[in-house]
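Table S2 (text version). Query chain:
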Amino acid sequence: MNKGTLQTTVHQKIAKVTFSHPAGNSLPSHLLLQLANEFEQLSLRADVQVIVLKSEGDRTFCAGASFDELLEVSNEADGIRFFRGFAHVLNAMRSCTKIIIGSVQGKTVGGGVGLAAACDVCYATDAAAIKLSELTLGIGPFVIEPAVQRKIGTAAFCKLTLEASHWHAAEWAEDKGLYAKVFPTQEALEQAVDLLAEELSQSSADAMAALKKIFWKGTDSWPSLLTERAEISGKLVLSEQAKSALAQFKK
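Corresponding structure-token output:
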């Protein structure tokens, strides 16, 4: 069984991190751990100045948490451990010393929206609609909330969370600040991302590292905050309502 992959290439100070999974580029625990470790390692590399985060394919950027793994959670400890994986990734992106550019080529759901929000700047195609579907599954976007609300504001986050069964267009996400720019094609997206990455790779590394700290000012509490949020999700995913909803959605 294809359990997904994570690949990183480094060329002329630009690291491209590409994740994939046959189930809509969803994120099981092992991919979450690999992503977090990759950001932590790239943060220390002198030959890397900017990071591009992307996924494979041309339809879906990220389907969020792995439903298969969520259905297998049988106790609170395992549930908390799974959602801490998302917390680990978001904190690794937040504390990474390199600027992270998100390249969102298609629809993204739940934790995938969190990944996009944790990028320092995010470009997308007009096919990159977003949805926070967690409430329909008996849980909520607790772990990713600080990252998403930081980008789009309280009112937009409430709308996105409560309209859990609705897609919101890429243009809406651009208007709210999640996406910096939206492009008509994946080719145009990739060209724009490459151009920005090249420009940043030639900028002052010290200046960008200092800017990164400013961008994330006020988030020092996230290590403990996101852990607390993981505990909420880890408990809720064990409910009969959540198990039933996950099983039905998978069908």
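Notes on Table S2: The domain at 5-201 is CATH 3.90.226.10 (2-enoyl-CoA Hydratase; Chain A, domain 1). The first strand starts at residue 5 and ends at 11.
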